[in-house]
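Minutes, methods subgroup
Present: GH (chair), OT, SY

1. OT presented the first of two proteins processed in the latest run. Sequence and structure tokens recorded below as shown on screen.
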Amino acid sequence: MTLPCDAIFFDFDGVIVDSAILKLEAFVEIYRPHGEAVTKAVRDYQLAHGGVSRIPKFRYFEEVLLGNPPDEARIAELATRYEEMVVEQVVRTPAIAGAEAFLERFSNELPMFVVSGTPEEELRRIVDRRGLTRHFRAVRGAPKVKEVIVAELLEAHGLTASRCVFVGDATTDFDAAAHHAMPFVGVVAEGVENLFPEGTVLITDLRELERGISEALG
């Protein structure tokens, strides 16, 4: 089967690798000493902003939730601690069902890209250690936001957004696709709340991605 698109843009955590929950729990663990109300607020914020880089999240947690004055050294310290908590887990955690089979089948057929909120060098190390680098034309992450990364990739590879598909599990992924009028497929695992607008094409894992792409492109 030939896919009806010219390229695919993938988020990483929760889309290719089943790591979204472990990253959520790392944020919660860091703030556990501040009590249940703070950890609940951290959990709720992460669930609503899954694709956002960790740096603005830590700024929000520190300055808004805890009322601390701006402190970039503290933010950097928290980001380093978070990285140390999650990288090895993300390298080892299982892939989303169907992800590896889909990449093996189609990555030689059309360009594929990773667009993530994870810091770019860290992301590339993880993708490489998982043996996935060969599937992607580019692996991109923070500090640039996803809308900017997508724009750069579209231009660099001569792609038309309406002929591509973005596959993501967070509203930031949906927003990045919508910004470029790019068809979107949302990944919502069983038992996870659907935060996407009504009418969004949804799949539970990448075993359904061929069907999702066909629906998204109409």
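2. SY then presented the second protein from the same run.
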Amino acid sequence: MSAIPSEFRNVTAVTKANVYFEGKVVSHSLVFSDGSKKTLGLIYPGNYHFGTEKAERMEIISGSCGVKIDNTANQVDYTAGNCFDVPAHSGFDISVPSGICEYICSFLD
């Protein structure tokens, strides 16, 4: 796997934030010239569930989290530099024990 990027060039940044769980999860969308989309976000301490329409790759930039993909048996812990994939039409539980977890979410085809 390649290194998690520290910046993206030549993108359109959507200024309106995506706000979930009363502001405890916040992201901004980036649209690339080929039409692909990513979000950059922050997750504050807590436990959250997200559903997926498209397959997603979540790359952890900083902090840590525990993740349980729908229809799997165990939670897996992730720290900065790690990533996980979520199937389309699925979902995942994510828990952040402390601090802030920063992530890049890529929507996969």
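Chair's summary of item 2: The first strand starts at residue 11 and ends at 13.
Next meeting: continue with the remaining queue.
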